[in-house]
Write a structure and sequence with these properties.
The complex is a heterodimer.
Chain A (H helix, E strand, L loop, with lengths): L11 H4 L4 H4 L2 H9 L29 E2 L19 H26 L13 H9 L6 E3 L5 H7 L3 H9 L32 H14 L6 E6 L6 H12 L4 E7 L2 E2 L2 E2 L19 E6 L3 H18 L3 E6 L18 H10 L2 H11 L5 H24 L18 H17 L13
Parallel strand pairs in A: 1-7, 2-3, 3-4, 4-8, 7-8
Antiparallel strand pairs in A: 5-6
Helix pairs in contact in A: 4-5, 4-6, 4-12, 4-13, 5-6, 5-10, 7-13, 8-9
Chain B lengths: L1 H8 L3 H12 L19 E4 L1 H15 L4 E4 L14 H5 L4 E3 L4 H13 L4 E4 L10 H8 L2 H4 L9 E7 L14 H5 L5 E3 L4 H13 L4 E6 L2 H4 L2 E4 L11 E4 L4 E5 L3 H16 L3 E5 L2 E3 L3 H11 L2 E8 L4 H12 L9 E5 L9 H4 L3 H13 L1
Classes of the chains: A alpha/beta, B alpha/beta.
């Protein structure tokens, strides 16, 4: 957006110099021409000449990489990641846990016990498959529908619940809406609501990590709707020109709230844009945890070895509503979502795979479901009982140290509460000892 | 030069107009008052403001291996020469051009700072900081708060040339400090000259909160004074009394300080009153104590800034002054500012809060 119309600190005398074209005479130009190759020399692109007037448009869509089919059967055994059964079971456990936690917290919002929630239905494989392919030191920037990454890294059920309740144990001190998780310990940068802002930030972090020569990369998740934001363009371009080891992970689930992807873009999805920025790109089946795993693992290797970005577009479907403030039947049929639930659900696919390998049984399934439900409900009950943080936490962390004007405002509120205590929900908030 | 002076003093109307056209429009609306802040800070050299800023970044890059300087056209030295030779000295991975995209520059800088690197981002003109407004206000400012202090971007500093320059028109003249003053979590700082710029920029870079450092671009070459060679820090959030007085408190920042000092001189000469001139230095957080102490002494206030009147930072000052100093005020607080119009090109001499408009306000509060 910066215009360059004004003189920019250049001395007047320099600006008055005649351009080169006025200085060369015709004869010297002809001489120089005869020594040059006949390729285009424009600095802005390296290309060939053509004498045929044709507009360029990509005709074939980038293919969608898969390892298993919709029934969970491996299509090409050479592509099957050689994961230990325990690892596969852990993936499954994490996907189930996320799914059951979603059910319980969604219902609790319906009952008015938490103010807001967003489920991850249908996208569990994108979280777990990608998280499993990274090291726990790799830095994660997310959008808001990536709770599975935290599950994989060991964010406890208590931590999830404490954040949603904004109680005194919440690492975020109850300041943000539910599902805006973050964990320094787990290298998961705190979620914020403004879409796509995290994408150029992830690029900057990747640049710094490259310079401090750590063997760490950065992954940044975002939806296909967020990819329409200017910040996404900024990030793709910065990552490519500044050679940043960052994995752009786009969850293309077909909808941004009510807006179908047909109203979001006209190109070949988000993957279609990668090559335009000079970014190595792959599109994967986001309901196939192994395809996501393989692609992320290869992307991480590529990013670190080449100090370059990778774009990964995981195709999936948002089975749940956008959020608890949304009723998706207002813009799509209930049958459509149901179809995905029944015919291509990532958890069912992994379940079928495990059964076909003989590493999973009905008994194990039943026990797992029951155990998780119990764990989630008890964490839920614990979180609900805890008081909210002390109200003075409203004033801390605005700056690294509290400036005088904020101390004054805090003091004012303290005096006010002495007089009007009964008018505020002070009992629900922790008292500072 | 002598001929021009002849023109200036000529009674011939045509010649005076010629002088006005050739000289006044080419020169600036202020005379520069050098700072005498160098005495206790070791060896010093004559520097202009862009050199002083360059020196602050040079020292940072030298001492702090994580520090990087980036933005549009910074690699060859910057369009205002502030980053001159830094890439040659510190390499392409530490001083580099970014694509032309302000939201990307600030987002990228936040990410660097998130992992602890010192990020010095340049926005080519403060007028073009607005594409990054979201990243600054929603992200940088709120990063520490929203994460419960788990993450922050305290090592981010955003530098941007601001203010009137004589012919900058709508998009090379703006003073956007008031937009940012409304964003808790940010620090906003404006230097009045070379020596202040170096010490304040060093403090912004070292500070644990994201800082916006607005550099009045008209001072880059015109503000020449002794500047300490070594590193030194000047406090953020502290105002300077640059001229002591007892009759009226004049408050401003950046270039306007020099306008106010000249106003004070004229007031002294023509009315024999002593104005107290305060450089606010920090817009956010700002130094309420120094200001109210001065106002309680003088009982009269004139606030002057280049930015438009309505919701300019002068409004915040005026409201706080009336609250803190109500019983001491002898006259209504006066604000002399840019008008509530976009910043015009050819009308700039009529738009800016000149020493004459400031003087009139001083006369008004004294007469009240």
């Amino acid at each position: 957006m910066a215009s360059r119309v004004i003189s920019r600190g250049v001395k007047v005398s320099q600006r008055l110099l005649l351009p080169f074209s006025f200085r060369a005479n015709v004869k010297s130009r002809v001489g120089a021409l005869s020594q040059m190759s006949d390729l285009p020399m424009f600095p802005g692109a390296q290309s060939q000449w053509t004498e045929k007037l044709e507009f360029s448009i990509r005709e074939n869509a980038i293919p969608t990489y898969r390892v298993t089919d919709r029934r969970g059967m491996v299509v090409d055994h050479l592509e099957e990641p050689q994961l230990k059964p325990e690892t596969v079971k852990r993936m499954y456990y994490c996907m189930k846990l996320l799914n059951i936690m979603d059910h319980i917290l969604y219902e609790s919002q319906r009952q008015g016990r938490i103010s807001f929630y967003m489920t991850n239905y249908g996208e569990e494989a994108t979280h777990i498959g990608s998280a499993a392919a990274l090291t726990d030191d790799d830095l994660v920037y997310g959008q808001y529908r990536e709770a599975g990454v935290l599950v994989w890294r060991g964010f406890s059920l208590d931590e999830f619940m404490n954040q949603c309740y904004g109680n005194c144990e919440d690492g975020g001190k109850g300041r943000q809406m539910p599902i805006h998780y973050g964990s320094k310990r787990l290298n998961f940068v705190t979620i914020s609501s403004p879409l796509a802002t995290q994408i150029p930030q992830a690029v900057g972090a990747a640049y710094a990590l490259k310079r401090s020569s750590d063997d760490k990369c950065v992954i940044v998740y975002f939806g296909e709707g967020a990819a329409s934001e200017g910040d996404c363009h900024a990030a793709f371009n910065f990552a490519a020109t500044l050679n940043c080891p960052v994995i752009f992970f786009c969850r293309n689930n077909g909808y941004a709230i009510s807006t179908p992807s047909s109203e979001q873009y006209r190109g070949d999805g988000i993957a279609g844009r990668g090559p335009g920025y000079g970014i190595a790109t792959v599109r994967v089946d986001g309901n196939d945890v192994f395809a996501v795993y393989n692609a992320t693992k290869a992307a991480r290797k590529y990013a670190l070895e080449n100090s370059k970005p990778v774009l990964l577009e995981a195709m999936t479907y948002r089975v749940g509503h956008h959020s608890t403030s949304d009723d998706s039947s207002a813009y799509r049929s209930v049958e459509e979502a149901q179809k995905w639930n029944e015919t291509d659900y990532p958890i069912s696919r992994l379940h079928n795979y495990m059964v076909s390998k003989g590493i999973w049984s009905v008994e194990e399934e039943n026990k797992l479901t029951a155990d998780i439900k119990k764990e989630v409900l008890s964490a839920f009950a614990r979180a609900e009982k805890l008081p909210k943080p002390n109200w003075k936490e409203m004033f801390s962390d605005v700056y690294s140290e509290m400036p005088e004007h904020l101390m004054k405002q805090m003091k004012m509120m303290e005096e006010h509460l002495k007089k009007y205590k009964s008018e505020y929900p002070v009992d629900q908030f922790k008292i500072l000892s | 030069m002598r001929a021009l002076k002849c023109l200036a003093t000529s009674s011939n109307k045509f010649l005076t107009q010629c002088y006005n056209f050739v000289f006044i429009r080419k020169s600036s609306h202020f005379k520069y008052y050098p700072d005498g802040i160098t005495s206790d800070k070791g060896k010093s050299l004559k520097m202009n403001m862009f050199q002083a800023i360059n020196s602050a970044m040079d020292i940072t890059l030298n001492k702090d291996p994580s520090a990087v300087v980036f933005g549009e056209d910074v690699a060859f030295g910057g369009v205002f020469r502030c980053t001159l030779d830094l890439q040659k000295k510190y390499g392409k991975d530490r001083v580099f051009n970014t694509p032309l995209c302000e939201q990307g520059i600030v987002g990228f800088g936040i990410g660097l700072a998130n992992v602890g690197a010192t990020a010095i981002a340049e926005i080519q003109f403060a007028d073009y900081i607005l594409p990054a407004f979201d990243q600054i206000v929603n992200e940088a400012a709120k990063c520490r708060y929203r994460s419960g202090n788990q993450f922050h971007c305290g090592s981010l500093t955003i530098r941007a040339p601001c203010g009137a320059v004589g012919h900058g028109g709508l998009y090379h003249s703006q003073s956007p400090e008031a937009f940012f003053a409304h964003a808790p979590g940010l620090k906003v700082v404006v230097p009045r000259g070379a020596a202040k710029a170096k010490g304040l920029l060093a403090s912004c870079i070292k500070d644990n909160d994201p800082c916006i450092f607005l550099e009045p671009k008209v001072l880059y070459r015109s503000a020449v004074e002794d500047v300490p060679v070594d590193e030194y820090l000047l406090p953020l959030g502290k105002a300077d009394i640059v001229l002591e007085g007892d009759a009226v408190t004049l408050i401003g920042w950046g270039t306007q300080i020099h306008v106010l000092r000249e106003t004070a001189e004229i007031a002294k000469k023509t009315m024999n009153v002593n104005c107290e001139v305060i450089d606010l230095v920090s817009i956010l957080p700002w130094d309420v104590d120094t200001v109210s102490k001065s106002v309680k002494k003088t009982g009269r206030v004139v606030i002057a800034h280049e930015a438009p009147l309505t919701c300019g930072f002068g409004a915040e000052l005026a409201a706080t002054i009336q609250e803190e100093c109500f019983l001491h005020l002898e006259a209504p607080v006066q604000r002399v500012t840019g008008f509530d119009t976009p910043f015009p090109c050819i009308f700039e001499p009529f738009y800016i809060p000149t020493k004459w408009r400031c003087l009139e306000a001083v006369q008004a509060v004294l007469k009240y």
